[in-house]
Amino acid sequence: MQYLLLILLPFCEKNDYKEYGTMDSLVFGQRLRYYRKRNGYTLTELGKLINRPAPYLSQLENGNSEPRVTLVSQLASVLDCTPADLLDPEPPTRRAQLEIELRRLQEDPRNQERKLPYVRPSTRMGDEVLEHIVGLYAALDDDSQATTTDPNTAGTIARHSNIGLRREMRDRNNYYEEIENLVNEILEAVNYPGAGPVSERILVDVCDYFGFSVRRAENIPHSTRSITDQREKVIYIPQRNDLPTRASRSVVLQTLGHYALDHEVTDDIEEYLRQRIESNYFAAAILAPEKPAVTFLQNAYETHDISVEDLQEIFYISYEMAGHRLTNLATKHLGVTIHFLRSDDEGTVWKAYENDGVPLPRGTDGTIEGEHLCRNWGTRQAFHTQDSFSLHYQYTDTPSGQFWCVTHVEADRFPHHAVTIGTTADQAKWFRGSDTKRFSTSYCPDKECCNTARASVRQHWSGVAWPSARDRSNITSGLPLLPKSFSRFPGVDMVEVYEFLERQESP
Question: In terms of CATH, what superfamily is 2-87?
Fold first, then answer.
């Protein structure tokens, strides 16, 4: 595929190389650095020659960004080489290969869990030192093959399923074309005008399109968001005092999504989680339709004013759904890579997505849910500002580069949750709030960054402090699985569901 890319290169100037092949950004960065130094250019000097800022070129050389084909051609012409030289899949030197291996080893979730200090190979670090460090990592992995985790528990299966699903979402840039096409057909069938928020009439027509009606009901079991009577084609949702109108729109469409996407009842956790992702996507695509949402985002992009809150208000959806919708459309239609986080006030990750290389915390098995974010990240700093319910904008320097983010703390949830949308520093210019003066630095997973108290404090309180932990749900274990004889819907008490439906039929 790499060689196909080289053949097609002259014919695809207006397109991203990703359409024709794959690129190892770390190898490309090393090859770019090699040819730049061979020509005696500094980053600033090279940037002037191709009309690009030096920080952007630094991101390329560090493997944190990937260039478009036109830029590869520009670089090749300036650096007296061919595009094939820059796109060669092999590191240019043994030193470059060692630096790439060291970075990948240190970013491996198993090694991040060991909390070892992050080593940045400087020019003064000899090749033999790099060989030694890489060899030690390999030996350490050989000694750590055993695991105490039972692979058959529900929690382990759910965590492993999340890893695979997140990888799939990243490969797609979180854009599900088949769902977008289906939604466009549905909206056209119910005469959606093509712009603005989806009205209540349109939502009723969407339900009618699938033959369903919606009823508010009391005492819906707490283990459910909605209950569907498939015989009578009725979707029951909680009363307005338990489920506000904006939230109810999402719940109804998430329920319809299962029918629209031909989902079947499953007791397989991975398939269940996939269905949840797809039905949530369906709901967001209905409430913030692709064509008007893309038009809005393209206009905001041109004025350097992309904002989640505007997307939220224009389409009358939650901030979280607006953030998700931005991840669906930003890379596909704007070429902007992005990350999304939902976390609580302790920094525990509940949901996460990224395709911009942000260094999310990972457990030894590679999962992100249940891990703790660095205290210096914007998503945690937002809880400690003077007005924690205002939008919090921040740049953060990390071992993987500099990132920008905006964090929204939800006031109507306890404990409070934060929704964060971010991107690389060089792409922040397209977003509202990119002019923020808030800057922070994170060295995580280095334990000295934020997970170790100051020496004087440790000495004063060690052996004296005895905290009592707060009771909480174990979000890392996935939804509880009842015996199959009780339920084929993870986390749902079917006894309560059947009794609820019985009450609806009673005269």
Answer: lambda repressor-like DNA-binding domains (1.10.260.40)
* Low-confidence residues of the chain: pLDDT under 70: 1-22, 109-115, 140-159, 241-244, 386-389, 413-414, 447, 457-493, 506-507
Instruction: Look at strands 349-354 and 234-238 and give their pairing.
Output: unpaired
Q: Which residues, 6 or more positions from 95, have their beta carbon under 8 angstroms from its beta carbon?
A: 127, 130
Radius of gyration of the chain (CA): 25
Order of strands across the sheet with 213-217?
213-217, 234-238, 227-229
Q: What is the CATH class of 174-287+490-507?
A: mainly alpha
276 membership: H or E segment, kind and range: helix 269-287
Query: Which CATH superfamily groups domain 289-448?
Result: PAS domain (3.30.450.20)
Percent of the chain predicted with pLDDT > 70:
80
All structural domains of the chain with their residue ranges: 2-87, 174-287+490-507, 289-448
User: Using CA atoms, how far apart are residues 206 and 236, in angstroms rounded to an integer?
Assistant: 16
Confirm if 30 and 99 have CB atoms less than 8 A apart: yes
